[in-house]
Specification:
alpha+beta; 15 strands; three-stranded mixed β-sheet; single chain; 38% helix; eight-stranded mixed β-sheet; 473 residues; 16 helices
């Protein structure tokens, strides 16, 4: 066993602490990460671009900050200087930005050392990370199962122990969904909570939140404090360091906005999580389903996504000398763009109205509660291929709605929400539980996460295809 293999078990705060105390140097953390990457990434395909030479050079130059020396990945939707940013798409495979974003600048200032880019579904569209550019990302808990998406590469890399935490973004559940599938902590902050990760279409921008996926609550809490936009019109988050003594009124429901119920394993996970909250002294009561038309929200979401993509892809036409086609984009992406272009002139205005009505109804429904408890996903993590981008648009949307029906509403309403790994099935598959709060109440959720983590620790649950299990670290 290599003498630095034990680092795989440590979260980012602990690894940075070793450097701060002079027990290790940043180059040690990067060398250990490179070893983990070399063993696991050929199996999992979690990382689509790595540059350890650049990471070592930065480590040797001297880094400072709360996460000084800790290896980090950016999802392949965000620019980082000198590293590929292909958005999971063949259309952008040659894109190498020369500059970063305010978000990546904050990560650098925190002392995180970016070693590469994590896999994403094409343009972040699908809830499974399987692309024609980079292939399939596997779930470390079961290689036949999805790592989910669109931050599937991040979730797989953290669950496998390649890095202790990594960037993720959420436009409908893309932090929470893969974190749930990988047995990790995933926190989507309130709308506007963090600094910008780059330009995006005006209609889709309000749906996007950036954060991270981690093994420990304290890693996420520290990370969000370092990327927080303190000019935002929100109650400040700051660095939440511990649980609160506040006892909460928690509303629980298993019914999705589409009127569906979860699979039996997911229901058991929800019941187990609700029982834990009761044991901890919180008041847990049934919550009525919000008066939200889930089908209308889904249709509006895909219309806005398609319109945003149409604009993005249209800008590439002069560079290509032709419209982007099937050699550039996956079938599902092309179908969404085609549907958006065929929509009526006032369709986007209608989608905005749907979002506004859904937001009002959801916030009214959750107002009597401090926190709302639901499943994260309606199903167990699905087999690879079930959300393949080569399937037809209607079939893919129907399958997505079946599994991903609890997370989009918090995105639309701008609420903070998190998935917490409190339950594993009898055959060892993780199933997360979602907790959400009103916009701006991020600190309340984070404090609750610390409490749940202490009550039912998950940090030493390692996937079969993780460095800890495979290398005996």
């Amino acid at each position: 066993m290599h003498p630095l293999d034990y680092l795989a078990r440590l979260d980012g705060v602990a690894q940075a602490g070793l450097v701060a105390r002079g027990e290790l140097v940043a180059e040690d953390l990067i060398a250990a990460c490179e070893r983990r990457h070399a063993l696991l990434n050929p199996l999992l395909r979690a990382v689509v671009h790595a540059d350890f030479d650049a990471a070592r050079a930065r480590a040797k130059s001297g880094v400072s900050g709360p996460f000084a020396g800790v290896p980090f990945l950016f999802k392949d939707l965000v620019a980082y200087p000198g590293q590929r940013c292909a958005y999971g798409s063949r259309l952008f495979r040659g894109n190498v930005p020369v500059s970063g974003t305010p978000f990546s600048d904050r990560a650098d200032a925190a002392g995180l050392i970016t070693v590469g880019k994590s896999a994403t579904s094409e343009l972040g569209l699908l809830g499974s990370t399987e692309t024609l550019l980079d292939g399939v990302t596997h779930n470390p808990w079961n290689l036949a199962l999805t790592a989910a998406g669109s931050s599937g590469g991040t979730a797989a890399a953290v669950a496998a122990g390649i890095v202790p935490l990594a960037h993720a973004s959420d436009g409908g559940g893309s932090i929470r969904i893969p974190a749930s599938a990988a047995g990790l902590f995933g926190f989507k902050p309130s709308r506007g909570r963090t600094v910008s990760s780059g330009p995006i279409g005006a209609d889709f921008a309000p749906l996007l939140s950036d954060g991270c996926i981690s093994r420990s609550v304290r890693d996420t809490a520290l990370f969000l404090s370092l990327v927080e936009d303190t000019s935002a019109v929100l109650p400040p988050l700051g660095h939440v360091r511990e649980a609160s003594r506040e006892r909460l009124r928690i509303g629980v429901t298993s019914r999705s906005l589409l009127g569906t119920e979860p699979e039996p394993d997911v229901r058991r996970a929800l019941e187990s999580s609700a029982a834990l909250c009761v044991e901890l002294g919180h008041e847990v009561v049934p919550a009525p389903a919000p008066a939200v038309d889930g089908s209308a929200v889904s249709a509006a979401f895909y219309l806005v996504a398609g319109a945003t993509l149409a604009g993005m892809v249209g800008m590439m036409t002069p560079l290509l000398g032709r419209p982007a086609g099937e050699e550039d984009l996956e079938p599902f992406t092309l179908a969404l763009i085609e549907a958006a272009r065929a929509a009526s002139a006032d369709a986007l205005g209608g989608a905005r109205a749907v979002f506004q009505a859904a937001t009002a109804a959801y916030l009214e429904a959750i107002a009597p509660f401090d926190v709302v408890l639901t499943p994260t996903l309606a199903t167990r993590p699905w087999p690879l291929g079930w959300l393949s981008p080569t399937l037809g648009r209607e079939e893919l949307i129907a399958r997505t709605e079946r599994s991903v029906c609890y997370t989009p509403i918090q995105t639309v309403a701008g609420c903070p929400a998190m998935t917490v790994p409190l339950y594993w099935t009898s055959d060892g598959v993780p199933i997360g539980t979602q907790l959400a709060a009103a916009p701006g109440r991020d600190a309340r959720l984070m404090a609750l996460a610390y409490e749940l983590e202490a009550a039912r620790p998950w940090a030493e649950r390692w996937a079969p295809y993780s460095f800890v299990r495979l290398a005996g670290a």
